[in-house]
Every structure is written in C-alpha cells, then in structure tokens.
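TA notes, week 10

Several of you asked for a full example with nothing omitted. So below is the full record: structure tokens for the whole chain, then the designed sequence directly under it. When grading your own attempts, check the secondary structure regions first.
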C-alpha cells in the first residue's frame, strides 16, 4: 500500500446539505424553515421557549441562594511550599506571602487572600508566613518547625468605621 492509494471507506464522509438551492434539491424555497413567522427569519433564538408550555427553568423548584459577599481564598498546601523551596523557587529566609507565592509560580492570583493548609510533607526549618487564613493543623506544623504564621485581614473585609 502506498500513501497515494489511501482513501476513506465508502460512506465514511457525508456531504453537507446545500440549503436554499432550488425546489428540486428538496431543501429549496423556505430552506427548511417552514413558512413565515419569527423563526423563519434570520437572527432568531428563543431560548427557553417551549411553545407556551411552562419552561423548564420555571417548572423546577428553587432552593438556596448565592452569597455574593463570599470570600474567595486561594489555597496553598505546605507540601507544595516545601517542594518550591527545594526547587529554589521560594526563598526560605524571606517572608512567604501572596506576592512571593505568585512570583514563584505556585499561584496565578491572590483573589481575596491566601489560605494555608497542612496537606503534604513539611520538614523545612523556620519559615515566616503572612497569609489571610490558615488551618489549625497548618499553624501547628509551621510552629512546631520553629516558624511563625501571621494572619492578615482579607481584601474583602470592610474596614472598621471609627
């Protein structure tokens, strides 16, 4: 077999229907759109309309709500920080905060702040963290290694009016 002898199996490719090309084509005149009315015209999409029947989004019962004031924290695990320090992406002597984590490539953005979690192996000596939140296990792991965790206010928290 040669490359110039390769071909599809019969019926593997179907030609598209050419719409609106004369009455003999079977899809001429109205082009498969029926007759007159809104949907026979171009640029019409009636999303959610079900011909007068109660639409699905109105038939289904509604529950709960979305809290628009919810804070969106970015999570960083101690194991990931350990790997970044070993790979020389993070400086163990400097304070590890959102800016340092973004510069090292561990995070893309800080959103409402960084939250520290204790997942993964952590064996680094003294580290200083400056984050918005941290789990109790993460704080215990850092402090047992001789480091400190400073908890900041998140960007989303309103300032206390005085």
């Amino acid at each position: 077999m040669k490359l110039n002898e390769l071909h599809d199996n019969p019926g593997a490719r179907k030609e598209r229907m050419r719409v609106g090309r004369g009455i003999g084509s079977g899809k001429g005149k109205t082009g498969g759109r029926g007759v007159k009315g809104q949907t026979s015209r171009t640029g019409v999409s009636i999303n959610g309309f079900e011909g007068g029947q109660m639409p699905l989004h109105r038939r289904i019962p509604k529950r709960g709500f979305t809290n628009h004031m919810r804070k969106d924290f970015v999570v960083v695990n101690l194991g990931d920080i350990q790997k970044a320090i070993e790979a020389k992406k993070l400086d163990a002597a400097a304070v590890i905060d959102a800016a340092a984590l973004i510069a090292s490539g561990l995070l893309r953005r800080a959103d409402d702040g960084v939250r520290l979690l204790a997942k993964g192996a952590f064996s680094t000596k003294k580290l200083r963290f400056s984050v918005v939140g941290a789990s109790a296990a993460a704080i215990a792991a850092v402090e047992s290694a001789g480091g400190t965790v400073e908890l900041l206010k998140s960007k989303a928290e309103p300032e206390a009016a005085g």
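The domain at 74-151 is CATH 3.100.10.10 (Ribosomal Protein L15; Chain: K; domain 2). Use that as a sanity check on your answer.
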